[in-house]
Design the sequence.
């Protein structure tokens, strides 16, 4: 599923990682509740709300990682090193987890877009 891949890519985790499945479950549960309440009545609205819920969940995880890094004195404001192909290597994950969530989200979105352009 598109949103599973998005969350996994943005957090550099496997699609079946507990964090990824938790983010997806939360997004789906919230939309399901809105459907039951009659607030969501179209498939397109449900998709948009799921997408927004997954993005919010990813951002919240990134914020949590950054707060943990600040508590441990390892917070960083610099971008991670990139490979010769301009993409973020898996070895940069710990660096990313120490970045502010907005910066990390931007870096990972750019990384994901580069991967999409090369067909990986």
Sequence:
């Amino acid at each position: 599923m598109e949103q599973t891949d998005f969350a996994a890519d943005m957090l550099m985790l496997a699609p079946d990682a507990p964090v990824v499945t938790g983010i997806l479950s939360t997004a789906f549960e919230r939309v399901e509740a809105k459907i039951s309440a009659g607030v969501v009545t179209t498939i397109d609205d449900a998709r948009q709300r799921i997408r927004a819920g997954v993005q919010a969940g990813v951002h919240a995880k990134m914020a949590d990682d950054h707060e943990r890094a600040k508590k441990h004195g390892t917070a960083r404001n610099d971008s991670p090193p990139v490979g010769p192909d301009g993409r973020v290597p898996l070895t940069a994950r710990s660096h990313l987890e120490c970045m502010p969530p907005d910066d990390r989200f931007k870096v990972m979105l750019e990384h994901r877009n580069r991967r999409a352009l090369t067909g990986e």
Observations:
- Residues 2-118 form one domain.
- DSSP finds five helices and no strands in the chain.
- The first helix runs from residue 2 to 11.
